[in-house]
Amino acid sequence: MRIAAIFLDAQYEERMPRSNGYRPKNAVRKEVEALREQLSTIPYDEWQRAQQVMLKITYALGKFHGPSRGMIQPRACKFCKFYGHTRQWCAARLQAEEEWKDRLIAEDDENVANSTLGERKRCEYIIDGIVCNARYCSCAL
């Protein structure tokens, strides 16, 4: 019974049409893009101003309320604390992650270059009839 329910749910999800969401039509595309740029410059503590810009965007799109008949609220990024995008698509977060990865790689390269293990030959101990040929190994320790 459970397998059939999962299978039916998967079929239902594949057939669901994609939501148009709050995408602008060509007639108001430039106006909406300008308003979204304005929204992205508003910090999260100025929520009243962000709400006013969001209302202008939704009116330009012809939407006056959300799917549950509630007010449409703008989202603020939890990383950079600005409106207009979420943490998933935050350019500042993506850049910070790239810098973090580069810093970790540099630290790792520096640790390998400064360690005595980097200068040691490969392990050639035989364990259970198999030759251990690892660069860094605890066989000899």
Please explain how this structure is put together.
It is built from four helices and two strands, in the order ααααββ. Helix content is 45%, strand content 3%. It folds into two domains: 2-86, no CATH class; 90-141, no CATH class. By secondary structure, it is mostly helical. The chain has a two-stranded antiparallel ribbon with strand order 1-2. The termini are far apart.
Name the descriptors.
single chain, 141 residues, mainly alpha, two-stranded antiparallel sheet, 4 helices, elongated
- Can you give the mean pLDDT? 77
Determine the structural class based on helices, strands and strand pairing: mainly alpha
How would you spell out the order of helices and strands?
HHHHEE
Helix content: 40-55%
Task: Tell me what portion of residues adopts beta-strand conformation.
Answer: under 5%
Assembly state (oligomeric): single chain
Short description:
The chain is mostly helical and 141 residues long. Helix content is 45%, strand content 3%.
Layout of helices and strands, plus pairs?
Blueprint: H1 2-15, H2 29-39, H3 47-61, H4 91-114, E1 126-127, E2 130-131
Antiparallel strand pairs: 1-2
